[in-house]
Design brief:
Two copies of one chain form a homodimer.
Chain A: E1 2-12, E2 15-26, E3 29-34, E4 45-47, E5 52-55, E6 57-62, H1 78-90, H2 95-111, E7 114-119, H3 124-134, E8 137-140, E9 143-144, H4 150-165, E10 174-176, E11 179-180, H5 188-201, E12 205-209, H6 213-223, H7 227-235, E13 240-244, H8 250-257, E14 261-265, H9 267-272, H10 280-285, E15 289-292, H11 297-300, H12 305-315, H13 328-334, H14 337-343, E16 360-363, H15 380-386, E17 393-398, E18 401-405, E19 408-409, H16 414-418
Parallel strand pairs in A: 1-4, 1-5, 6-7, 7-8, 8-10, 9-11, 12-13, 13-14, 14-15
Antiparallel strand pairs in A: 1-2, 2-3, 5-16, 16-17, 17-18, 18-19
Helix pairs in contact in A: 2-3, 7-8, 12-13, 13-15
Chain lengths: 422, 422
């Protein structure tokens, strides 16, 4: 496959550049990036003239089966929302619900430029089935928690083990995490079991961490010490993915710096659930890897990572009156290469580089009424972050395979999925 | 004209409802809202089946000629941005620049559902020309300020008077404000002159007010007392439009409550210029009218009021951890009827009601891949605020005249305008 004449987003040491280039993909690998590459006979050619070619977006924290909760329970804060609204409804979900809702989310992701998602849910065989059919890249799990008795906790662990043990080892697109729900919903015993599973299977930990103000005291009460210390106690040397991390104080930052962890920042969900704004400018300045996520649609509205990029960039001006806050170049990296680092797959994806797997999206920035928010195009990077919407993506490629071309979805029967929803 | 079968957004006493209705427009007036209205012979029929029909959006603070600065000067705070970046460039603008840039913004507004804009700029004959050609509703002005000598200040006042005196009194779409730039850029003498002009011509005042932290001390130094007291001193009983109002303390709120004023809230610009978040939840709770604006594209990125609605709703979760913050119903009103109140035209526009002028937009929410962020459509109001983009608007009507129908612009030669920009 040869992607011709695109404006390619390239990450350099301390910069993000836009370079007019062709990209040759052989099987699933980016073989060559150069000007005027001659196509081989019968090679598939994608004309990207005037379009942006960039690494696929990586959504580092989502619950893709939650698409069915879109538009519900506005105005709740995290605890009310989970305890009174979401958990009671989730208890009634069927496998079919989870499969259908996941398929809907996968359509949303492919059509808005996400090539990889880090999911956090249950009935995950259904989620895996939807992912396998659609050929998206993903990390999945079976969430563990401790809120309804020992029997239920034990069953969750068994379900995780079943999920992991039944994996298809030939499918390199789907990887796994061990996922205690959060420090305020898991006992020390369960955290220790999660740690052992992570070591046994060599998997990362993926957990909610200091999302809301209420957690701070709850964790102290439950575990006898501050959240970061609890985290360090159980997951000290383990690759750990922390969703949210809104409420980190300076001591927390100092502790996280010493750990092998990344933060999945979900600004839209944080706003919507009244959690205020994570100081990701500070985290990045301290060398902590920060990537972006949407959370589920129940709190994050949608899975459009372009919207998340824009709001992540803007939100820092909500807490920083000095000018050191992150800019659009940093945000593009948070949505791509930082996400790959968070998942531990940055040698493989997250940037357009020779030798990496071809997870690539092509974005329509042509001069027309639908793109009026990009005219004049004084700065492509700025426009990508501040004035682009997911539906500007016209082509989505995962591991060298085209999942959408010119807004035509390849492996999913759209009509059949959409008719299952209102 | 008869708009058939739409899902019409209707404001009731303390609620926002969605009602399936037809709307009959006679000349420029909404004559009847009811089910199954029979069309007259030869009546223009617009089929809105499955679409949302809502009041046109009112952008209460913009600088529409600033479209040419889109994507520039990221990371600056207000003072650096104005003093070092924007004002030096603006000094070089030609009339042609202002006309072309305004036309581009008008295209952006019509195609994203804005039917009325409150502009704040100079060379405003050019802006008026563009507005007259395009038939958008607007309030315009010639900004007054006092930063470069008495001669220049005097010339600005003359230009304002020329602009106002040369108005076309038969054109009810274009109204005027008297616009001192801000309390930190206008002397007491100039504020007094602005007051006199406002009284003489019976026009509102439109000024920047407490946008950034630096202003607080500057205003005190310049006028010898706090900003709200200065405001009250000069504009006590005058209809006053305050752009931003980010930095209001409790005393400011108490003073503003006693005045005839509204706040134009521009959350995207405030974020981008490092001004933090205006507590509009509190202002509204105190009975102060708050409407929405985009500011110019240099700080606000674009003029898409759907984006501004979404970010205004979300932003309150950045400062309110309790659940009393504004919701999507409130935000829809801020973008429409509150904007009309701010401009003093709420008897005429801002809601869909029999007897009001027909400023109406029709929004495509049909079930298709481009609208995947709205599926399932559990709540139309929530989807309008959180998951709709300006380009979902398919028809824009101002004063009974169709400016765009099915995304086709009527009175502007798009190609001719676009070719003037990169």
């Amino acid at each position: 496959m040869l992607i011709k004449n695109g404006k390619v987003i390239i990450f350099e040491e301390n910069d993000v550049k836009v370079k007019e280039s062709d990209i040759e993909v052989e099987n699933n690998i980016i073989k060559k990036i150069a000007k005027s590459i001659e196509p081989d006979i019968n090679e598939k050619i994608i004309d990207a003239t005037g379009k942006v070619v960039m690494p696929g977006l990586i959504n580092t924290h989502a619950h893709i089966a939650m698409s069915i909760f879109r538009g519900t329970f506005e105005g709740c804060n995290l605890y009310t929302w989970l305890n009174e609204k979401i958990w009671p409804i989730e208890a009634k979900l069927t496998k079919e619900d989870v499969y259908n809702a996941s398929m809907l989310s996968i359509l949303e992701m492919i059509s808005t430029g996400t090539t990889c998602v880090n999911d956090h849910y249950f009935m995950s065989e259904e989620i895996r089935k939807a992912l396998e059919e659609s050929k998206l890249r993903a990390m999945i799990t079976r969430v563990l928690m401790d809120t309804d008795g020992e029997e239920a906790s034990k069953k969750r662990i068994e379900e995780f083990v079943d999920l992991y043990e039944s994996r298809d080892e030939t499918n390199e697109l789907i990887t796994y995490s061990v996922s205690p729900h959060g420090l305020y919903t898991c006992s020390g015993k369960l955290l220790k079991e999660a740690r052992e599973l992570a070591i046994k299977y060599n998997l990362p930990i993926h957990t909610h961490f200091l999302e809301s103000i209420d957690e701070i005291e709850d964790i102290k009460r439950m575990h006898g010490e501050e959240a970061s210390k609890v985290l360090k106690k159980y997951f000290s040397e383990i690759h750990t993915i922390l969703a949210h991390g809104v409420k980190l104080n300076d001591e927390d930052v100092e502790i996280l710096k010493t750990m092998n962890c990344s933060i999945a920042h979900n600004p839209i969900s944080n706003f919507r659930l009244g959690c205020k704004i994570a100081d990701v400018t500070k985290y990045l300045q301290n060398g902590i890897n920060v990537a972006l996520g949407t959370d589920g649609q129940g709190s994050g509205n949608n899975l459009d990572m372009f919207e998340t990029m824009k709001i992540a960039a803007l939100a820092q001006g909500g807490i920083h009156e000095n000018e050191a806050r992150i800019d659009s170049k940093e945000v593009i990296k948070m949505a791509t290469i930082n996400g790959a680092k968070l998942l531990g797959i940055d040698k493989k994806v997250g940037s357009i580089e020779e030798g990496k797997n071809a997870d690539i999206i092509i974005v329509d920035i042509s001069k027309k009424l639908d793109n009026i928010k990009m005219i004049p195009n004084n700065d492509i990077i700025s426009n990508l972050v501040y004035n682009t919407e997911g539906r500007n993506v016209d082509t989505t490629i995962v591991n060298g395979e085209i999942l959408m071309e010119n807004r035509e979805i390849k492996f999913i029967k759209i009509e059949e999925i959409l008719k299952r929803f209102s």
